[in-house]
Amino acid sequence: MSKTKESFEESLNSLEKIVTDLESQELDLEKSLEMFEKGVGLYKDCKKHLEKVEKKVAKLTESLEEEEIDD
Question: What SS3 state is found at 61?
């Protein structure tokens, strides 16, 4: 089964919903564990996405600095 990647915003929104649901304490233990596991996966996806964006920003910033040196 193919799993499509959510955008960063979608993953973050899903993660926020999970946190809200877990904080409500209305879930049984099994459902709480299931939601927690899903939340951990979403957290990892968000972290990877942010790291990728940070690298891209660093590269772009570096290229701007190189252009300033060349001028």
Answer: helix
The pLDDT value given to residue 4: 58
d(CA 46, CA 6): 10
- pLDDT tens per residue across span 14-31: 999 999 999 998 999 999
The CATH number of domain 8-70 is 1.10.287:
yes
Q: In the chain, pLDDT over 70 holds for what percent of residues?
A: 92
Counting beta carbons within 10 angstroms of the beta carbon of residue 18, is it exposed (0 to 12), middle (13 to 18) or buried (19 or more)?
A: buried
| CB contact at 8 A, 45 and 6 | yes
Segment holding 30, helix H or strand E? helix 29-70
Is residue 3 a contact partner of residue 17, using CB atoms and an 8 Å limit? no
